[in-house]
Design a protein that fits this description.
single chain; 4-stranded antiparallel beta sheet
Amino acid sequence: MLAVVKIAGQQFKVQAGDSLYVPHLEGNNGDKVEFTEVLMVDNNGTLTVGSAVKATVTAEILTSLVQGDKVIAFKMKRRKGFKKKHGHRTHYTKIKIESIA
């Protein structure tokens, strides 16, 4: 069984047993999370799309906070003495999909 789920404004293609990194979710390690905004379900070749989908996806939080790679935004104007350096690391949550029902 395959599903397309909307999590924090992004779409993810998931199956039972998959583990993936999603934008940071509130919760601790071991907590159960349900996603009700399922956009598409493929059940052994039978596609269900749109408002006809009545499925929910349950997942378990494996790691509550994972930091992504550092991204540096550097701005400079030549011959003016202007330099700015900003950086950030995006926060993610690692989850494992348990079931699609």
